[in-house]
Every structure is written in C-alpha cells, then in structure tokens.
C-alpha cells in the first residue's frame, strides 16, 4: 500500500539533494511509490519502445539509436498538462557539439504513449519535485523515449557527445528496460569535474535527476552480454525548462 508519508519522504529527499548538490538518484521501489505505478504498468508502458524509429541524425555514423519526440506544457497551479504541436527537436551547437545547430525531425509520440496512465503520473511527480527546488509554476517538458541497441559489430552510445549539459533547467533519465547488455553506467558531475553520482540504472523505474544548469552528465557505452544476440537499453529522457 502506498502511503502519503512514504511518497512524501521520496519527494523530500529528492528536493533536498537537488537543492544542495544538483543531483539525485531514485531507485525503482521509491519512484513507483511516489508515482503509484505498478510493475504491470511499467511492463505495458515499455511496449511503446517497440515502435521507435531509427535516429537518422547520428553524426558519428551510428545506427544504434531509436527514438520519438514530443513536448508538453505543464501549469502547476491548474494541473493542466498540454501536448504541444509537433515540431523539430533542436539544441544549439554550444550545448550539443555533436548534434547541435540543426533542426532534427523525429516521429511524434504515439497516442498510446501519451494517453496511458504512466506518462502523466511521471511528469506530475517530477514537476512537483522540481517546483519544490526553484518555485517554478509552469514548465516546458521535452519527452524523448530512446532505445540504444548494441551488437557484436557496433556498441551503443547513449551519450555519443560525451559529458554534457542539455541547456534546460532539470534533466532526467528514467530506466524502462535493459536486455542482454553490459555497461550503461550513468554519471553526474559538477561543472568543476567533481563526481556527484555514479550508477547503473537497471530496473524499470530507476531514475536519475539532475539540475542541468550546474551539472554535467554522461553514460558509458553498452555492449551485448551475449555476442550472439543484439541487446538494448531503453530509457525515457525528460527535460524540464522553467517558463
């Protein structure tokens, strides 16, 4: 049974860590408690990663990344979560030295992805934490489900640009599933290079939160555990920008 106290403790710990250091890790049991998402909910939500489309913009020539993209506006006072008209994903070159400076056109999020129970619960729970850190009442949220595939001939690079920022207010990486891969260690650093968090997101619901304005993050490559079969790492990246 989920209690207000247990969920409140999870949110309080996240708010405190983000305020003090700029990074916080929430393990799946705690995040499921906070959001009210069950193991079966996570399993159904993960089916959306089977219909992602290959990313054609990989400057390193890789064919290992699949994704879709959408964005929302969230008004904390009214509770209204509005899906915005579909458009290109863009980061400037000073933020993303590998893929920045161009409009990247990805397939939109599916209706099943958007309308199911999981996405709203996740976005609302995270927004409550982030608003507790800096008082923001309205958010732009960029939502990107990503699958990184690894084969014996090609490692998968979750962050081919290396240690980086995303040019937003808060950045999150939510584990959806892993299959037949090793690697994928996530790290968060201060701008001076001090290591704040190192972890391998492994269970559906594990989530890493970072204040993007004062931290940098990276993820190591994933490789197949069994070379005879491809492996994959599925995550949901959510970027919150205060309005």
The Rg value, from CA coordinates, equals: 17 Å
Which residues form runs of ≥5 with pLDDT under 50?
1-5
Approximate shape: globular
Overall average pLDDT: 94
Total strands: the figure is 14
Category from helices, strands and their pairing: alpha+beta
Q: What is the percentage of strand-forming residues?
A: 25-35%
Q: What is the terminal separation in angstroms?
A: 36 Å
Count, helices: 5
H/E order of the elements?
A: HEHHEEEEHHEEEEEEEEE
Summarize the biggest pleated sheet.
Answer: 9 strands, antiparallel
Helix content: 10-25%
Give a description of the structure.
The chain has 243 residues and is an alpha+beta fold. It is built from five helices and 14 strands. The protein has helices at residues 4-20, 28-35, 39-46, 111-115, 117-134, and strands at 23-26, 53-54, 65-67, 70-75, 80-83, 138-150, 170-179, 181-183, 186-190, 195-199, 207-211, 215-219, 222-224, 231-242. Strands 1, 2, 3, 4, 5, 6, 7, 11 and 14 form a nine-stranded antiparallel beta sheet that branches. Strands 10-9-12 form a three-stranded antiparallel beta sheet, with no helix packed on it. Strands 8-13 form a two-stranded antiparallel ribbon. β4 (70-75) and β5 form a beta hairpin. α1 (4-20) packs across α5. It starts with a helix and ends with a strand. Mean pLDDT is 94; it is low at 1-5.
């Amino acid at each position: 049974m989920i209690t207000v106290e247990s969920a409140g403790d999870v949110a309080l710990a996240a708010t405190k860590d983000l305020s003090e250091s700029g990074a916080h890790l929430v393990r799946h049991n705690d995040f499921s408690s906070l959001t009210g998402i069950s193991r079966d909910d996570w399993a159904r939500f993960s089916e959306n990663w089977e219909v992602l489309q290959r990313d054609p913009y990989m400057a390193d020539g890789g064919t290992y990344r699949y994704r879709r993209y959408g964005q929302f506006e969230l008004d904390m006072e009214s509770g209204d979560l509005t899906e915005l008209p579909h458009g290109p994903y863009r980061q400037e070159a000073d933020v993303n030295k590998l893929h920045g400076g161009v409009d990247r056109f990805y397939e939109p999020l599916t209706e099943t992805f958007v309308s199911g129970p999981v996405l709203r619960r996740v976005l609302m729970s995270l927004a409550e934490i982030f608003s507790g850190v800096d008082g923001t009442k309205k958010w732009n949220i960029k939502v990107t489900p990503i699958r990184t595939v690894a084969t014996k001939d090609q490692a998968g690079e979750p962050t081919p640009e290396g240690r980086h920022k995303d040019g937003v207010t808060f950045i999150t990486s939510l584990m959806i599933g892993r299959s037949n891969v090793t690697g994928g260690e996530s790290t968060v650093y201060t701008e001076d290079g001090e290591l704040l968090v190192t972890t391998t997101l492994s269970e559906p619901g594990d989530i890493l939160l970072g204040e993007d304005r004062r931290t940098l993050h990276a993820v190591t490559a994933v490789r197949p555990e069994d070379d005879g079969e491809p492996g994959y790492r599925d995550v949901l990246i959510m970027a919150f920008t205060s309005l």
